[in-house]
Structure to design on (98 residues):
């Protein structure tokens, strides 16, 4: 590997950059809140989507796409699908290595 290439790209190899290498954009406030809530819920051993939805409602998490706070299995599914779609589009346009 050429020394110039390694030196030029050394900045992109820092762990803080690699942690988000597949994102085409930063998560917005509601996406970050949902991600944090889901991590907490899963860490507490809750995995059934009905229970996950109930936990999101009790935590008053705002759904990133719809803005709703009363979570159901259907809403959770729709929000995850649409958020993934939005992140895929952003990656296609701006993703690291895309």
């Amino acid at each position: 590997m050429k020394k110039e290439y390694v030196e030029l790209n050394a900045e992109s190899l820092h762990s803080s950059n690699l942690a988000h290498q597949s994102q085409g954009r930063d998560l917005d406030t509601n996406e970050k809140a949902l991600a944090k809530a889901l991590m907490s819920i899963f860490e507490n051993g809750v995995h059934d989507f009905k229970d996950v939805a109930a936990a999101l409602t009790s935590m008053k998490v705002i759904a990133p796409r719809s803005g709703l706070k009363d979570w159901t299995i259907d809403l959770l599914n729709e929000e995850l699908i649409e958020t993934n779609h939005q992140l895929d589009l952003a990656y296609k346009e701006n993703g690291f290595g895309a």
Summary: Residues 60 and 69 are 6 Å apart (CA to CA).
